[in-house]
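Hello forum,

I keep getting stuck at the same step: I have a sequence, I want structure tokens, and every attempt I make locally crashes halfway through. Rather than fight my setup again tonight, could one of you with a working pipeline run this one for me? It's a single chain of 204 residues.
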Amino acid sequence: MDTRTLQHFLSLSDTLHFGRASALCHISASALSRSIKQLETELNVILFVRDNRSVQLTHEGALFQAYAREALAQWDLTRNTLLAEAKELHGEVSIYCSVTASYSFLYDILSQFRHNFPAIEIKLHTGDPDHALRRVQNNEEDISIAAKPDLLPKDLAFKPVGISPLLFIAPKAKNTLNENLSPPTTTEQWGSIPMILPEGGVSR
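Reply #2:
Ran it on my machine without issues. Output:
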């Protein structure tokens, strides 16, 4: 069963804010708006009164909110009961990483896992790697794939899954990179090299 539309509706009805609701649903605000519009068309009622400044539930929206909560609760209960009867490990795991890390590491990590535990739902979220550790600490994610910092927070465990080298890319026409980065390097040498750096994170 596809329960995403109900989840989209409940996120918006709880936050009454398209930006916050779309972030919770991990979709764009425009995609959330289309999902709500399609639901209103199917029900043939207006669920939200919205303008450029505010979003409010209609009377029909409040009635549907109660139904949506009950429907999702019943669906989760039924699904968990069926999985328990099958004696299969079930549940969900939330993973956060950069898009690059998802291409570099996730296939090897998840291919065997999906084969062994098909009833586990994997929720993948991608974004700035600088947020990876904080999202786990804030209980927004179960696992993050990130570069290990020099000082790992005490409340986090770390398991190495690979080594990603730090690479420098420069135009061939200006063959000064090797000269400037030849050991020993100094603060002055680094300062003379124009570079594009992220605002934060381990690589910076």
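Residues 132 and 144 are 6 Å apart (CA to CA). If your local run keeps crashing, start a new thread with the error log.
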